[in-house]
Design a protein that fits this description.
59% helix, elongated, binds zinc ion
Length: 313
Amino acid sequence: MQTKLAVQFRKNRRTSHAFERLKTCKKCGGYSVLFDNVCKQCGSRDKFIPVTEYASAMNRIMPWAEAFGAIALVLLAVASAGTLQHLAAAVIGGAAFLFLFFLLRKRYKPYADTYRLHRLLIDHTPAIWRGLRADLQEAVQDMDAAKPKEAYEKLREIGHFLRGEHVKVRKIDCLGRFFIRKDMELELEEIVPASFRQDFVLYLWEAVKVNKRLVRQSVLDYVVAYRYEIAAMEHGKDILTLVAGAALRMKAYVQRYPHFIVDYLDELPRERFHRLCKLMASTPAADRGRLYERCKELAKTRYGFDPEFQGLF
Ligand SMILES: [Zn+2]
C-alpha cells in the first residue's frame, strides 16, 4: 500500500466563467490553463496574457477598424459621384449612415464586445484544444514522475474544460494518494465516474467524513446505483451509512432517496437520526411512507426515554 501524502493545494482561482482561466501566448497564439509562464509551444517566457485581456485589446482595435471601414465607404461614394446631384446624395446619405453607425455602435457596444469574445473563442477552438492536450500531457508526466500534488493541481485546472472520464480517473488516482483534511478544498461531484470504481468510493468516504456538504444529487445517484458493490467492500456499510447520514442535510434528498436511507436507520448516529425524525415529523400524512413508519418505530423503541425525541411523532 502506498504511503499517503500530506499536501497543501495551491489556492484555487475563482472565476465566473471557465474561459477566464485561459491564457494565450502573444508570440505564437498557443493556449494554456496552467501556472507556468513558459509557453510549451514556442518556448517563450512571460508572453502569456489572459484571454479576456486579449479580447479587450481586440475590442479596442476592432471598433477603429470598423469606423475606418464605414468612413472609407462614404468617401468612396462621394468620390465616385458623377454629377452634383449624386454628390449631394452621397454626402447626405453618407452623413446619415455615419450618424446611425456611430449611434448604434455606442448603444450595442456591450453586445458587440461579447460577440467578438465568443467569435474569438470559436475561431481559436483548435488552438485551445491543442493547448489543453499539452497541459494534460504535462499532468500525466507529473503522475509518472510520482508528483501527484502537481499533477492534481494541473488536472483541477484542466477539468474546467475537459470533463471526460480520462481526466476524472486521473484526478481520483491523485486524490487517493493524499491525506484528506477538513481545510482542503475538495471536489466530489465533479469526479463522479461513469462506472463503479473502488478507488473513487474510498476517496468519497474520506472526503465525506470531513465535509458532508460534498454529498449532492449526482453523488447520491452514484452511491444508490452501486450500493451493492459498495456494501461488498471492506467498511462498505460504514460508507453507505455515512452517505445516508449526509443526505439528511437536504429535505429534497430525503424525499428522493427514502428507500436508500431507510436501510441505514439502525446505524445512523443519534444526531443524524434526530435530524431525520424532525424532517419526518413535518411530513404531511398523505406523503408518509415506509421511512416515516420506520423512523417512528425506531424513535419509540430506541429513544423512547430520550427527551429530545418526545412528542416528535
Ligand atoms: Zn508561444
